[in-house]
Amino acid sequence: MNNTDKKQHSVEGRVVSNKMDKTVTVLVERQIKHALYGKFIRRSTKLHAHDADNSCNEGDFVRIVECAPMSKTKNWRVVEIVARAAE
């Protein structure tokens, strides 16, 4: 099986920090249903993603995909900027 045959896991989120060199922090939100009451609850996860060009700014919506670990906490990379933040 080639690496191109694998389906890569991708998510979309909002950039909340770009203070690191070639790294952004992306906030990914999801909704889960409460087991007992059935109410939908908003949950979020912060992921560190590789931004090779340092092109992302805070507030941008980006699509990131999983990749091989680049550091202790970074195993995602930015594929595209879906929407730029309003200036």
How would you sum up this structure, described in words?
This protein is mainly beta and 87 residues long. The chain has a single domain, classed as OB fold (Dihydrolipoamide Acetyltransferase, E2P), CATH 2.40.50.140. 0% of the residues lie in helices and 56% in strands. The chain contains no helices and five strands. A five-stranded mixed barrel has the order 1-2-3-5-4. Strand 1 and strand 2 form a beta hairpin. It is globular and about 45 Å long. The model has no long low-confidence stretch (mean pLDDT 94).
Strand order of the largest sheet: 1-2-3-5-4
As for the number of domains, it is: 1
How many helices in DSSP terms?
0
Percentage of residues assigned to helices: under 10%
Can you tell me the CATH class?
Mainly Beta
**Major sheet description:** 5 strands, mixed, barrel
CATH architecture: Beta Barrel
Q: Return Rg in Å.
A: 15 Å
Give the DSSP E fraction (strand runs of 2 or more residues). Answer: over 45%
**CATH homologous superfamily label:** Nucleic acid-binding proteins
Alpha-beta classification: mainly beta
Order of helices and strands: EEEEE
Distance between the termini: 45 Å
What do we call the CATH topology?
A: OB fold (Dihydrolipoamide Acetyltransferase, E2P)
The overall strand count is: 5
Mean pLDDT: 94
Given as residue ranges, the uncertain stretches (5+ residues, pLDDT < 50) are none
Reconstruct the topology from this structure:
Blueprint: E1 10-20, E2 23-33, E3 40-50, E4 61-66, E5 74-83
Parallel strand pairs: 3-5
Antiparallel strand pairs: 1-2, 1-4, 2-3, 4-5
